[in-house]
Amino acid sequence: MSYPRYINEMIETTYDMWSKGWDEYNGGNISYRLTEQEIQEMATDLADTDYRIYSEPIVVENLLEVPHHFQGQYLLITASGSHFRYLKEQPAVDTGIVKVTETGYDIVAGFVTGKRPTSEIYMHILAHAARYAQNKEHRVVIHNHATNIVLYSLLNEVTSESLTRDLWSVLTESIVVFPDGIDVLPWMVPGTKEIGQATAKLLEHTRLVVWAKHGVLSTGVDYEDCFGLIETANKAAGLALDLQRISGKPVQENDVLTDDNLRAVCKALHVEGRYL
Ligand SMILES: [Zn+2]
Predict the structure, then answer these.
(1) Cα 157 to middle of ligand 1, angstroms
(2) pLDDT digits (tens, 9 = 90+) for 125-178
(3) Residue 112 C-alpha to ligand 1 middle, in angstroms?
């Protein structure tokens, strides 16, 4: 039995996230937008696996108004109550494929014991739609509780600009990985339409949204791109926390990278920093 690549990468990514301590117990969720070819070959690709394909899909309607340009897309998505430590043992139980419809989705494969998609599916659909409108290569949305970023947002009054500048100024690679910056959403109740809509709005001009005092919402053209974005921001947040702790001063009062330093990095690597 061998799974198609997009399922194998989901298995690896969920386990890596759990190993990093970002997805305790049932925390976090991931979705991946299938390519045209993967949709065409789904029946063949899943034939020798424990995924089941439903001739009569389970229909969920009246959940949200799906933007027109995103209707008909297929997402591989993690289940509500899936545990990323254990998902690798039972991907067909803990993930499934949904087809996005006008006001919801049809479950077309997977979730073989009857689990349902993450309660954040509303946010996933809107996040994909927002990024897909910006970049036709967009594929992956990840939500998790990246530890250093959560801690940083608990310790500091963060805004989109202050967090972006702090993380840019402690790790030279940061501005290259997220030149569009990081947007901060003040704390909101998760799993609601409001947080989904507010997140999607911010994703019109950024790839990474921090949910203050909760976690991150990252997007990317593939799993590695999306994971790497969180990894870099979380590394920078860790440096910023250590810097604050060791010096006893706010990040910007230390000998961090200046705007001129950041501009020089941008020039050398041909990116444009949002706040410079
Ligand atoms: Zn969460």
Answers:
(1) 20
(2) 999 999 999 999 999 999 999 999 999 999 999 999 999 999 999 999 999 999
(3) 24
Q: What is the 3-state secondary structure (H, E, C) of the chain?
A: CCCCHHHHHHHHHHHHHHHCCCCCCCCCEEEEECCHHHHHCHHHHHHCCCCCEEEEEEEECCCCCCCHHHCCCEEEEEECCCCCCCHHHCHHHHEEEEEECCCCEEEEEECCCCCCECCCHHHHHHHHHHHHHHCCCCCEEEEECCHHHHHHHHHCCCCHHHHHHHHHHHCCCHHHHCCCCEEEECCCCCCCHHHHHHHHHHCCCCCEEEECCCEEEEEECCHHHHHHHHHHHHHHHHHHHHHHHHHCCCHHHCCCCCHHHHHHHHHHHCCCCCCC
Question: Which tens digit of pLDDT belongs to each residue from 35-46?
Answer: 999 999 999 999
State percent of the chain over pLDDT 90: 97
- For residue 24, report the distance from its CA to the centre of ligand 1, in Å: 10
pLDDT at 191: 87
Give 28 Cα–ligand 1 centroid separation in angstroms.
Answer: 5
Catalytic residues: 120
Those residues whose beta carbon sits under 5 angstroms from the ion ligand 1 are 215
